[in-house]
């Protein structure tokens, strides 16, 4: 379900917010000075004014009659709720159409009258959920409405909201984390001593489609622990019943049980409506007949009665009884009758009605008539409002129109149209309707969006200083701008056809290529730029093909996250500072540079490869640790400010601040199921928290020193903690009961980590050692020595075979986790290394250091990949997200930074091999043929035999040839249709071979770049190629588990070598050309007769990514070191 947004005509987010924000220009930098007022805060909080919704509903339902609701005020249940301080929750439940909403409106009106029991009406807040409106059918909207009214009536409480709003602005109220943030704020408000009590009323809980369990949990908690009383209503539903019956202070009131009282109230409602029938106003006998017949058929359903009287409104007296006779009892038969009448309309009217009903039913919120006209594809046929209103009236009583907004009359009407009437309005299924809405939206946006759609002209002024033009060109487009992606994703989820939209030649790519910045500008003008990032993430989630589209979308998400604050305030800076200051190699800048403001010229010196996505600010002291939840949606950070903070990992929005420790917090860890968070502190305790609500669960005590680290076992049953008292302790993670105390270190223990299988525990210590322990018994296994300074961190690789340790000696060491044997020493940091973390795929190791940097290393070879710079103080912790896409780092500069862990810099670098001094960086400005440089990650390089030419292979489907001395590009070789994974020169340097994920090998003239042959035969990606020493044979390795031998001159296949049981990652010829070696993911190396292709020998090894023969051919050099193991004959 799409996120809620304000209706057209309110323009709240556009001009109601008052702020003092000044744009200082884009020549050198872009700075905003902001003072966000209380009016700004309330304007952004307000998604809908519940008072306005109440008035609209009353009007739509024909007004409120005291006789129709006052009966409930005299029930024992209501009187108990009102008069008994211990009775804090009243649940009114009943089936659809029983009048629950009007009952609650009556109760609201009653409570707004000051009495002895409720003398202060300023404490009354309410919200009316409506399932037909995505603005009003989610838990966050409920909280926003309740808090809004509470502040309006008790304005001193805004301070609790203002503090967080000053930090986050509108983001506080948006996204998946908004409910959690607002829950904490509401709890704080309720704890304020100036608030003597609060009364909350929520109607139609069953129509809260998103976040209902969270809302029910909040209601249950505050009804017991806070000074709050609740009245809620819903249909009879087991899930709601189950959660609300847990509240001891709760009372149920069933409308079915009180059927006689409800029937009497309906009788009052019928009497009132009969008296308003103009055609029989003076015919008492006729009135009695009508009254009696409707009462017999009503069945205790207010809605049915209301619909009948709506139909009778303009009927002449002689037809009234006939219609009452014709109308069937019960709602759904009544709806059947309306559909039958629509089908009997003349000419195009039935088709128009079906289109409108389909669009209104599957839209995520009520639509402005101009929006509905587009989604129903009627903009060319119905141009005037009066004509459109006539069609709405022809749709029976399913729809109503007020203030240009079209509403479904009731949730039951929507339920009926999606089920009983589906064969009429959606014969091809819901997916087809979603797809049609997507297509019509995208077509209209493509035809209408343009740069500076409001004709602002001046890029500097803030949008909130401007009123939208009249007519507003975005008025018909608002819904399409916000929800075209949602409808596409819903269509894909229900039918396979729309997946073609998400390809490199599909409609989505064409739209984004032409209108991406126009779309962002429009979202900014609508105050909904954050929806752009949400939509981009949704497309990426659905994407199954289209590498060009994927690259653009990943960069587009960074673009919005990086420059959103600028674009959100000054929309035309989308084409100014946002575009200018994006990296020169960014996909957005390359593709959209044509849209730059006219006075902007090329800006030099913008650094490419800056992969910092976000900086999270909020802690008031250094941040010591970070951890991602298992689902990747939450980030936890620990700080010397004695708090733990939970953040939305996608948006950076804060969720909860966990307070309770009395000294610095040194570490945090999530349980494997994500339900529990553990925190370690200098106050000698470990605390366990509910990771969803931030509520404390247990405090683990008994340490003789500060607790420096915590870690959960993979099964979540055991918690390990490291302490300054030289011990490691193991605890029962569910109960907090101690299990074992591990002793052996001679200094404070700084870190702990479980192996992936849970059998081994590693601990790091100030005594310069790492210990490995049996995690079940606490028995020590190995003591790893080698560091010359205290060891600050340890981490296991995902496969459990490698252990990494970080030390104050400025190094990271990699060890064999089974034997404790050292493998590599990683050197490069200029300060103490404080933390290490492996990526989920085990290929990358991240290290954090006091030198203010984070380094990324190849976990297999120990070679450095990137140095991430940006922190202004020591970096204390690093953590990868579960999907490996994001790296989080925590620093003494009081910030957490989120980095793109997958970004490559698209360059080839040449270094002086003797001194390590860089010579050249081979890079360019775009991915076009005429420009110089790769536009994708560089996967392989190879020098020609004479050393004068360098070849590079890339994910951008190309091979480039460079002058190795000067770094000047010579040729771009194009022809592959997918990523190029490997390149190799023939021994004479005249031929270049390239391997690709397009299942082919290509042979090129190395001097001119002219293609010679395309070698086809593999059934999967080709990962490696190698020439025989005489240049006559070419070997290729593939993910199809085979090695092929080819005639290098003609490209003719010679042999297919089969035997591996997994992908083949590398091949190499022996110096004499007699033997071919191949390495595979099956962890074997096989030796073959290079002439006949017959297998010779095989030996087991680790997974190898590269191998070559030694000069004498006696052993193999690999990325895991030399291999001279005894061969096994095949």
TrEMBL record:
Presence of keyword Repeat: yes
InterPro entries attached to this UniProt entry: NACHT_NTPase, NPHP3-like_N, P-loop_NTPase, WD40/YVTN_repeat-like_dom_sf, WD40_PAC1, WD40_repeat_CS, WD40_repeat_dom_sf, WD40_rpt
Start and end residues of each NACHT domain: 88-235
Lineage: Eukaryota, Fungi, Dikarya, Ascomycota, Pezizomycotina
WD repeats: 616-657, 658-699, 700-741, 742-783, 784-825, 826-867, 868-909, 931-972, 973-1014, 1015-1056, 1057-1098
Domain of life: Eukaryota
Naturally occurring in which organism (per UniProt): Diplogelasinospora grovesii
Pfam families: NPHP3_N (PF24883), WD40 (PF00400)
Keywords: Repeat, WD repeat
Listed SUPFAM superfamilies: P-loop containing nucleoside triphosphate hydrolases, Putative isomerase YbhE, WD40 repeat-like
Stored SMART domains: WD40
Protein name: Vegetative incompatibility protein HET-E-1
CDD domains: WD40
């Amino acid at each position: 379900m799409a996120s809620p947004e304000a209706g057209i005509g309110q323009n709240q987010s556009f001009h109601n917010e008052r702020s003092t924000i000044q744009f200082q220009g884009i020549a050198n930098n872009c700075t905003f000075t902001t003072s966000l007022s209380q009016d700004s805060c309330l304007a952004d909080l307000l998604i809908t004014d519940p008072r306005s919704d109440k008035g609209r509903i009353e009007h739509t339902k024909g007004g409120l009659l005291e006789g129709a609701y006052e009966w409930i005020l005299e029930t024992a249940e209501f009187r108990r709720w009102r008069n008994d301080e211990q009775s804090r929750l009243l649940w009114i439940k009943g089936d659809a159409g029983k009048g629950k909403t009007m009952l609650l409106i009556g109760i609201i009106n009653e409570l707004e009258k000051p009495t002895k029991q409720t003398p202060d009406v300023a404490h009354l807040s309410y919200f009316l959920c409506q399932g037909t409106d995505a603005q009003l059918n989610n838990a966050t909207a409920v909280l926003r409405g309740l808090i809004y009214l509470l502040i309006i009536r008790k304005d001193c409480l805004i301070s609790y909201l203002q503090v967080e709003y000053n930090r986050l602005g509108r983001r506080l109220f948006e996204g998946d984390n908004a409910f959690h943030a607002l829950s904490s704020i509401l709890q704080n408000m309720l704890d304020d001593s100036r608030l003597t009590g609060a009364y909350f009323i929520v109607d139609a809980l069953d129509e809260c489609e998103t976040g209902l369990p969270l809302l029910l949990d909040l209601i249950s908690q505050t009804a017991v622990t806070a000074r709050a009383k609740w009245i809620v209503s819903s249909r009879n539903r087991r899930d709601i019943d189950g959660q609300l019956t847990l509240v001891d202070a709760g009372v149920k009131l069933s409308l079915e049980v009180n059927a006689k009282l409800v029937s009497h109230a309906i009788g009052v409602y019928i009497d009132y409506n009969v008296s308003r029938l103009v055609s029989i106003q003076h015919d008492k006998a006729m009135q009695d007949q009508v009254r009696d017949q409707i009462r017999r058929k009503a069945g205790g359903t207010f809605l049915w009665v209301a619909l009948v009287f709506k139909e009778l409104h303009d009927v002449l007296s002689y037809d009234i009884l006939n219609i009452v006779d014709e109308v069937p009892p019960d709602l759904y038969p009544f709806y059947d009758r309306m559909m039958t009448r629509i089908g009997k309309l003349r000419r195009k009217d039935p088709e128009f009605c079906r289109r409108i009903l389909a669009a209104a039913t599957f839209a995520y919120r009520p639509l402005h008539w101009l929006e509905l006209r587009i989604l129903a594809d009627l903009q060319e046929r119905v141009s005037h409002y009066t004509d459109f209103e006539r069609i709405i009236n022809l749709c029976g009583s399913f729809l109503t129109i007020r203030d240009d907004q079209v509403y479904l009359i009731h949730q039951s009407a929507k339920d009926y149209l999606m089920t009983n009437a589906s064969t009429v309005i959606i014969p091809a299924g819901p997916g087809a309707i979603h797809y049609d809405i997507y297509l019509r939206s995208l077509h209209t946006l493509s035809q209408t969006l343009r740069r500076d759609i409001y004709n602002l002209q001046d890029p500097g002024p803030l949008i909130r200083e401007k009123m939208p033009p009249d007519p507003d060109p975005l008025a018909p487009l608002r819904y399409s701008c916000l929800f075209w992606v949602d409808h596409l994703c819903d269509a894909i989820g229900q039918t396979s056809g729309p997946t073609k939209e998400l390809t490199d030649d599909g409609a989505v790519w064409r739209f984004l290529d032409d209108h991406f910045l126009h779309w962002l500008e429009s979202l900014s003008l609508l105050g909904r730029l954050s929806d752009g990032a949400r939509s981009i993430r949704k497309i990426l989630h659905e994407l199954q093909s289209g590498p060009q589209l994927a690259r653009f979308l990943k960069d587009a998400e960074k673009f919005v996250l990086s420059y959103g604050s600028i674009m959100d305030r000054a929309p035309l800076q989308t084409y100014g500072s946002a575009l200018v200051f994006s990296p020169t190699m960014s996909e957005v800048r390359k593709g959209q540079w044509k849209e730059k403001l006219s006075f902007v010229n090329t800006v030099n010196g913008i650094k490419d490869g800056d992969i910092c996505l976000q900086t999270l600010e909020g802690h008031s002291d250094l941040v010591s640790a970070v951890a991602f939840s298992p689902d990747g949606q939450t980030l936890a950070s620990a700080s010397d400010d004695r708090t733990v903070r939970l953040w939305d990992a996608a948006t950076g929005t804060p969720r909860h601040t966990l307070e309770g420790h009395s000294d610095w917090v040194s570490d945090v860890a999530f349980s494997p199921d994500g339900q529990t968070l553990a925190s370690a502190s200098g106050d000698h305790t470990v605390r366990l928290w509910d990771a969803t609500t931030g509520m404390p669960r247990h405090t683990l005590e008994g340490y003789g020193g500060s607790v420096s680290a915590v870690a959960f076992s993979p099964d979540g049953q055991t918690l390990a903690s490291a302490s300054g008292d030289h011990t490691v302790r193991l605890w029962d993670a569910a109960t907090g009961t101690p299990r074992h105390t591990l002793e052996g270190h001679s200094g404070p223990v700084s870190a702990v980590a479980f192996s992936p299988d849970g059998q081994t525990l590693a601990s790091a210590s100030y005594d310069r050692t790492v210990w490995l322990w049996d995690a079940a018994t606490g028995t020590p296994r190995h003591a790893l020595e080698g560091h010359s300074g205290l060891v600050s961190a340890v981490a296991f690789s995902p496969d459990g075979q490698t252990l990494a340790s970080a030390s104050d000696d400025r190094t990271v060491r990699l060890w064999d986790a089974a034997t404790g044997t050292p493998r590599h020493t990683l050197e490069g940091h200029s300060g103490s290394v404080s933390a290490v973390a492996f990526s989920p795929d085990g290929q990358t190791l991240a290290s954090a250091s006091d030198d203010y940097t984070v380094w990324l290393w190849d976990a297999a070879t120990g070679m450095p990949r990137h140095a991430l710079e940006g922190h202004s103080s020591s970096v204390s912790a690093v953590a990868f997200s579960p999907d490996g896409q994001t790296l989080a780092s925590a620093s003494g500069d009081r910030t957490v930074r989120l980095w793109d862990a997958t970004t490559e810099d698209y360059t080839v670098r040449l270094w002086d091999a003797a001194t390590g001094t860089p010579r050249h960086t081979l890079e360019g400005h775009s991915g076009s043929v005429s420009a110089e440089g790769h536009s994708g990650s560089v996967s392989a390089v190879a020098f020609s035999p004479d050393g004068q030419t360098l070849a590079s292979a890339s994910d951008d489907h190309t091979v480039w040839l460079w002058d190795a001395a000067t770094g000047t590009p010579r040729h771009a070789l194009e022809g592959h249709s997918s990523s190029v994974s490997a390149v190799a020169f023939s021994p004479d340097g005249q031929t270049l071979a390239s391997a690709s994920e397009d299942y082919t090998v290509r042979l090129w003239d190395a001097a001119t770049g002219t293609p010679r042959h395309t070698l086809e035969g593999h059934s999967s990606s080709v990962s490696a190629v190698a020439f025989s020493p005489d240049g006559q044979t070419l070997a290729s390795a593939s993910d199809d588990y085979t090695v092929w031998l080819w005639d290098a001159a003609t490209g003719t296949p010679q042999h297919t070598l089969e035997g591996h049981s997994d992908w083949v990652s590398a091949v190499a010829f022996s110096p004499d050309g007699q033997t071919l070696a191949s390495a595979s993911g099956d962890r074997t190396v096989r030796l073959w007769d290079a002439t006949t292709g017959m297998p010779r020998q095989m030996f087991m090894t680790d997974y190898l990514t590269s191998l070559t023969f030694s000069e004498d051919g006696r052993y193999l050099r690999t990325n895991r070191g030399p291999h001279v193991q005894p061969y096994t004959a095949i």
